[in-house]
Amino acid sequence: MSAVLYDEPGPQARRRILFGSVVGGVVLAAGLLWLILKLASEGIFDSDRWDVFSDAVVWESFGRAWWATVRAAGVAGILALLMAVVLAVWRMAKNPVLRIPGTIVVELLRGMPLLILILFLLLGFGLTSFRALVLGLTLYNGAIIAEILRAGINSLPAGQSEAAYAIGLTRGQTLRTILLPQAVRRMLPSIVSQLVVLLKDTSLGFIVAYVELLRTARLNADFYGSRYIFSFFFIAAGLYIMTNFAVSRVAVWLERRGTTKAAGRAPVLVKPDANI
After folding, report:
1. How far apart are CA 113 and CA 62, in angstroms?
2. How many domains does the chain have?
3. For 92-118, what is each residue's pLDDT tens digit?
């Protein structure tokens, strides 16, 4: 099948691509092998570095921390998506009296460091560590996702808005029923990437004493001894990676489902009867 946006690579290009892939794979495998040998030479894989995980209390602490991380990320993610829609519509208002304040709010939240925002909510408003973390993640990521949605809406053909206005739809109805659904589908990979960043940013809860995965790994290392630092942080990193991978897989499923619904079912071709 020929490509639409680029030419199919020729024999020489395919050989170069194959050569680059092989060389890259060999370099990556060599780097991974060197890292494993380096860690093994320092005794990282010795059984006495991992025997602490035979204690059920350790797994229980990581289970509670994982749930606390997912809970904070889930609440903040949902609120950030809702806030993003409001901010995107606010910033795209036709009236400059509404649009200018919306632009200032979005740029202020995007430009403020997330850690400072969380600390400000904790110390300035006296919120709990959970609420300060969730609200900080909501405000920061809501502004970023709002810009992603705005970019998706601006990338749509102008004729869609004009057609909507021609049949009598208002600006709000056009955004809600035509532009926003398409922008979400178009920008879904970017939105999911930002939600993955949001999940990883829950590690900043360590600063405000919220018991998430990073803080739990640190507390366990302090209690059981520094020889287990690598082991505890390795497990914490693995839980982060598995959770982010699950989020990415769900997003891929939603994207395929949305694409199928948007395209509709393919028509069934019936072979004509030869006797007719």
Report:
1. 28
2. 1
3. 888 888 889 989 999 999 989 999 999
